[in-house]
Amino acid sequence: MPSDEVAESTVNPFRILLVDDQPMIHEALRRMLADADDIELHYCREGTEAVKMASDLHPSVILQDLVMPDIDGLMLVKFYNANEITRDIPVIVLSSKEDAKTKAEAFSVGANDYLVKLPDQIELLARIRYHAKAYAALLERNAALKELKLISITDGLTKLFNRRHFDELFDVEWKRSIREQHAISLIMIDIDHFKQFNDNYGHQAGDDCLVEVAKALQSAAKRPADTAARYGGEEFIVILANTDEKGALTLAENIRQAVVALNIAHDHSSAADHVTVSLGVASEIPSTDSPAERLLKAADQALYQAKEAGRNRTAIV
């Protein structure tokens, strides 16, 4: 009975791309690999098509002929390494040459292994499986690191960016606005009378409210230039790159209406009988001597004015 490992690899075989201009080599390797249930061989005869085919196929290993009529095999190895999609895919060079200089050149341009063709069947299988498994492990590690990175910049409850990542993004966008002399705007948002909501409906309901407001905020701030974050507690903030005062005010009103449309009951608010938000808007075309903190303070001051004026509204300074 096959092991779990073999059964799994049969369902998801390693895709191997052979790049070689000689059909007889393809046929020989096809026969060598025919009984390997964990290997799926694909063939590219034209060197000029190899990078595109590798990008589309996402193979676990590339078997690359060293000498081809339309393009040098070592040049192809360089192209794989220069392509973001293919640069980590292991490349096994297949060559009729066995001299040390040729091998050194192959490794110097980024090849992972070198086999003199036609290789022994057992050795070929072993080399392919070794590199394919190493590549699979690399992909798993990269996916895990990407997930950890996402967790580190995301607010666990609302799934918006967290305060730390907002600070990083705001610094980047502020400096870009200085360079390009484009307006940058901030919208600071606060859920009206959220303490009373928590006190009367409970913290679970409060968490649910925060999540729904965050979703409404994201649905309104959906342009590529809009970056929403949880600023702290019941406060949110949106960075609007390349957006002037008029555009920021329009988006702020869209956010306010999106929260109203949630129709979350709030019988303990003086602003309305449902959950509402107050919003502060600030906009500026910064100069080299402009501190980013000034725009933050302006948005905070505008939010304060919106609250003082009765809440459930937008103010700008």
Number of strands: 10
CATH architecture of the largest domain: 2-Layer Sandwich
Number of separate domains: 2
CATH superfamily of the largest domain: Reverse transcriptase/Diguanylate cyclase domain
Uncertain segments are 1-10
> What fold name stands as the CATH topology of the largest domain?
Alpha-Beta Plaits
Number of helices: 11
Estimate the helix proportion, in percent: 40-55%
* H-E order: HEHEHEHEHEHHEHHEEHEHE
Summarize the main sheet: 5 strands, parallel
Mean pLDDT: 93
**Strand content range:** 15-25%
Q: What's the CATH C level of the largest domain?
A: Alpha Beta
Q: Which strand order do you get reading across the main beta sheet?
A: 2-1-3-4-5
Molecular structure report:
- There is one protein chain.
- The protein is an alpha/beta fold.
- It has 2 domains: 4-147, Response regulator (Rossmann fold, 3-Layer(aba) Sandwich), CATH 3.40.50; 163-316, Alpha-Beta Plaits (2-Layer Sandwich), CATH 3.30.70.270.
- Helix content is 50%, strand content 19%.
- It contains 11 helices and 10 strands.
- The chain has helices at 4-11, 23-33, 50-57, 73-82, 100-108, 121-153, 163-180, 194-201, 203-220, 245-262, 292-308; strands at residues 14-19, 39-44, 61-65, 91-95, 113-116, 184-191, 226-232, 235-241, 277-284, 314-316.
- The chain has a 5-stranded parallel beta sheet, with helices on both faces.
- Helix 8 (194-201) crosses helix 9 (203-220) and helix 9 (203-220) crosses helix 10 (245-262).
- The radius of gyration is 29 Å and the shape is elongated.
- The termini are far apart.
- Residues 1-10 have low confidence and may be disordered.
